[in-house]
Write the structure tokens for this entry.
Amino acid sequence: MSETALLVAQIESLGENLGAARKMIASRFIGQEKVVDLSLTALLCGGHGLLVGLPGLGKTLLVDTLSTVMGLNAARIQFTPDLMPADILGSEVLETAADGTRSFRFLQGPIFCQLLMADEINRASPRTQSALLQAMQEHEVTIAGVHRPLGPPFHVLATQNPIEQEGTYPLPEAQLDRFLVQIDVDYPTRAVEREILLATTGARAVQVMPVFTADQLIAAQMLVRRMPVGEKVVEAILDLVRACRPGEAEGGAVAGSLNWGPGPRAAQALMLAVRARALLDGRLAPSISDVAALARPVLSHRMQLSFAARARGETLGGLIDRMAQVTLGQQAAA
């Protein structure tokens, strides 16, 4: 079997397994296919996801279900203003042995897991939020001068309440940029909410089973990086990202609407995410439509509207959609 044929067979096999995983997740987390797909996209790309939505929409249930179905060891941290970095990372304690000798022993914090749920991450102080920065980017933490690796795999799915801002600390831009995608969790439709009521208020809870293991997820992440990407898709990603930067020549259309735009990490995230989306849809390569579909999740937390744009009633989502329509339409016509 040729290398190309082997790659095609591996992609098709992985696609079937992902289909089974999506079906398993949907049996418990009902009616939020887009949210599930974006969460799986983050995992397949080896990245992190920021879940934004009101309380009670199932964000915690989603992370718990993902950990079971994807075979990951999970931990949960409820962020509060008095949470300290040591509560996340761990600390060294002094122990006295039976012979009277003393030594330090490191007690691991909850960050030493494969899937970390950071619940209401914006409620913690900037000092505590910064404890996650090195872990999210380098997959390791430094404690008392010792580098301690995390994973692989290691993923953070953080939740954030978009309405209640009292007593919160907005995430700094450097940390927001570490999230591969922002996943907006909206209210369910009436039909879906009816299905949720019937499924969750009975005598028996829906049980899910593992479909993947941690090793299989790592293999899937490597396979995603081997998927081919056409030149038109690469150019579409570059066109879109650069058109959303007010300081670039291509960003003249947004010069008065944005304080800053996405950096190179956004283009890297799009490059990986379009492959994962194609894989979830059972395709062997991504298309320009994948770039358009992922523009908002990948770019929205990496940009900021100017005061003048907000005064005009512009929204970040609308601006991204407009730039995607212009730049990707030109690519599709080329």
About this structure: The mean pLDDT is 87.
